[in-house]
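Recall from the previous lesson that a structure prediction takes nothing but the amino acid sequence as input. Here we apply that procedure to Glutamine synthetase from Dioscorea cayennensis subsp. rotundata. The sequence below is the only information supplied.
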Amino acid sequence: MAQMLVPSMQCSQMRVPCNLPQTRSLMPAKMWKSLLLNNQKAKTKKGLSSFRVFAVKSENSNGTVSRLEDLLNLDITPFTEKIIAEYIWIGGTGIDIRSKSRTIPKPVEHPSELPKWNYDGSSTGQAPGEDSEVILYPQAIFKDPFRGGNNILVICDTYTPSGEPIPTNKRHRAAQIFSEKKVTNEVPWYGIEQEYTLLQSNVKWPLGWPVGGYPGPQGPYYCAAGADKSFGRDISDAHYKACLYAGINISGTNGEVMPGQWEYQVGPSVGIDAADHIWCSRYLLERITEQAGVVLSLDPKPIEGDWNGAGCHTNYSTKSMREDGGFDVIKKAILNLSLRHKEHISAYGEGNERRLTGKHETASIDTFSWGVANRGCSIRVGRDTEKRGKGYLEDRRPASNMDPYVVTSLLAETTILWEPTLEAEALAAKKLQLQV
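The prediction returns the following tokens.
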């Protein structure tokens, strides 16, 4: 929808509330024109004259916005075979997403049809200035919901010119683990619950919260409806549809416990696809919040105090877990996970110690625990899994800013490839009261 910039002075003249801290507020073009027409009927000729000037200004501005939107929405398919490919990669922090565009001669169906590309790694914290070239390898393709047509989004990983993965390329190691025969035979499934927080851009405070203040206590906001309880639904819905258009395996979304916080779920997805889909979904969310003028935060504890943090709970199963007798396989996996708790925690996201406190539906970061239907444990097993004797487990430790390549591959490595000593296994089983 085209938006009009309306000076606050004009808002007061038209009896429109202007309670935002900015000197100008955004108003849809149709509402602006409607207000002009209503005020023309009520004003004197002197008033009409002044509003005619404003109307001319609005039409010029609206025309500019309209022409720009026309070009942005232009369908180039009838005129050229060429497409635009948006190459997407992970930057130097391990969580920032970068991208740039390239013209491709014709539509493609597989990443192998796309050329490798390069970028300036010294500008992303991934290479020194004197040898700054980093090479992009296309790995996964999604449809582009912003440009439409045959245009695509391309998830890439990153290498030196000699072909070595750079340190922030976590996909390369994940691909090695997922290509192991024992892992592929187990067909690992993942369902990832990505939580995120929406922040007001000018103050970096959660959407819907009074600036510098706090809303009412948690309770009425989870999966809620209403202007006083749900903040950012349009962004969540726009992201949902964009993911479906792109071909991301998104399975649902909901408002979260803390106001201004949301969650969406991706999966079930097999192997490395799960992480590719999460990274692409994060890119879409960054672009949508950019357009909405809202800041996306993946901080695991965006607001200190009696407020829920943001996680990225990872539901996981193998073929053996999903078959009859799978509950015993799940318990063996839990035992292995307990023995590598520190390794997993160190790889499950920055700032996670602020979230995993033992409060707000989390376990303590220092203690491994598991339970059936217990959201205060490290690993939760569902009631249905216990009843059926097969199914999946939920790892509730990953933070919202975790790298899905790291988390998914580490779960597969620990539960399928890694074998503890018999002594360690026996001690862990006794401690966790597991019979395997």
